[in-house]
Design a protein that fits this description.
Structural class: alpha/beta
CATH topology: Rossmann fold
InterPro entries: CobQ/CobB/MinD/ParA_Nub-bd_dom, DNA_Partitioning_ATPase, P-loop_NTPase
Protein name: Cellulose biosynthesis protein BcsQ
Pfam family, one: CbiA
Number of domains: 1
Strand order of the largest sheet: 3-2-4-1-5-6-7
Radius of gyration: 18 Å
Distance between the termini: 18 Å
CATH architecture: 3-Layer(aba) Sandwich
Length: about 250
């Protein structure tokens, strides 16, 4: 009997903290490197930035022989196609995911959901309640931290703690970590997070410009793409591989 597909969201109500980047990076790493079968429901209406990224990636591959050869080599070595990226409104996201599962020849291990950055958007709370796991990126910036803690506390109090919905775990992730900052600062924040009854993963993701590296005509190593995993030269030191391992352990797929 096949394992049930897990529904996972990197979610927060503070923009620019990395929820969309994590969705793409984790999906590509787990699908193309770790061999898991993944899909994405882009319900970050109306911009649908991941769905548009897939379109850009496809256009770049189709018109550029360098990337076309890369895609061919990847397809033949992995013997698997690119993962699905489907656009949806938040209120329809769960039914879209169920369609993907029903139509798939091989059931996905994980479907990631990229949701709008506000709980006030129609259907967001209901869709979050349908997740198995929620990971909320957070940085040591006070405004970001306060916003994310408020967001996570609301979900914890209204969904997780009272057993509403399917949520098995809600975890924060340190993102945009400045290596020059003292560890004591993060320990203080983690004590506050613990007092609120929230959990945070051990892995720290550094603040680095490599997260913006997409497919370009200059053929530089790519970091963020829906068709390729992060290049090994850029993956080193990014902690994306370490984070992926911790997430798989957390969701019990490791």
């Amino acid at each position: 009997m096949e394992k049930e597909t897990l529904f996972i969201a990197f979610s927060t109500q503070k923009g620019g903290v990395g929820k969309t980047a994590f969705t793409v990076l984790m999906s590509s790493y787990l699908h193309y490197v770790q061999g898991l079968k993944v899909a994405i429901i882009d319900c970050d209406y109306p911009q649908h930035s991941i769905f548009e990224m897939r379109q850009r990636d496809m256009e770049q591959v189709m018109k550029d022989n360098y990337y076309k050869q890369m895609a061919y080599q990847q397809f033949t070595s992995l013997k698997r196609k690119a993962y699905s990226v489907v656009s949806s409104r938040p209120e329809n996201a769960i039914s879209k995911a169920e369609e993907i599962i029903e139509q798939a020849q091989i059931q996905p291990n994980i479907i990631f959901f990229d949701l709008p950055g506000t709980l006030n958007s129609k259907g967001v709370v209901k869709t979050l309640g349908g997740m198995d796991y929620i990971f909320a990126p957070v940085s040591a910036d006070r405004v970001v931290l306060e916003s994310t803690l408020k967001f996570a506390s609301l979900l914890n109090e209204n969904l997780v703690s009272v057993g509403k919905g399917n949520i098995k775990g809600l975890h924060l992730i340190w993102n945009m970590v400045d290596g020059r900052e003292k560890n004591e600062l993060y320990q203080v924040y983690e004590d506050i997070i613990g007092e609120l009854g929230l959990n945070i993963l051990k892995t720290f993701v550094p603040d680095t410009k490599r997260f913006r590296r997409e497919l370009t005509t200059k053929h530089k190593p790519v970091f963020r793409s829906t068709l390729f995993p992060a290049h090994k030269s850029l993956l080193k030191g990014s902690n994306i591989d370490v984070l992926a391992k911790e997430i798989l352990e957390t969701i019990k797929l490791q």
